[in-house]
Design a protein that fits this description.
8-stranded mixed beta sheet, single chain, 30% strand, RibDG_C, 197 residues, alpha/beta, 5 helices, two-stranded antiparallel ribbon, Dihydrofolate Reductase, subunit A, 27% helix, globular, 10 strands
Amino acid sequence: MSELLVDFITSLDGYGAAEGWPGWWGLEGPEYLAWLGEDSANQDTVLMGATTYRLMHGFAAGAAAEGTEADAMAELTAAPKVVFSSTLEDPPEWANTRLVATDAVAEVRAMKQAGVRMRTLGSVSLCRSLLAAGLVDRFRVGVFPVITGATGQDRIYDGYPDVALELVSNRTFDGRIVMLEYVPTVIDGPPGARQPG
């Protein structure tokens, strides 16, 4: 079976965005952006929901129209993408995109069995469903050094099951952005307690 990576960027308090703040909270630096371009070039199949699809397709289309498409956006446009939605019309407008209107968990399970390497992009509820189903092999979080308690949007971990995380790597970009990568295990009690099984 292949690997599924859930990939988030968050504020320290677990928000995916903040009202009135730019993308990456305005704190992306050259080291982080260079890594992002390299990381997005790996051609994993990118999984997303309809909201993330609309947002990212808009970014890519706007950048391409202005002739300023950044390397990361160009790589994302070229990457194979699967969008889970019952509201989007088929065929999708964005190149290399397949629309799936059926159960995401069943589709991802079948893709893993077929040997497809996957990663998510945003899509909090999709990631939550895949994690609860035990399909996530790695959980990576880029933590940006801000707390957005007053303006934060898109709380990432609300509604998640309890999860034990085994740290497998960490890195700091531009002296301020911390990237943490874990192997997740859904648990029924505190880590270290005997799990039913």
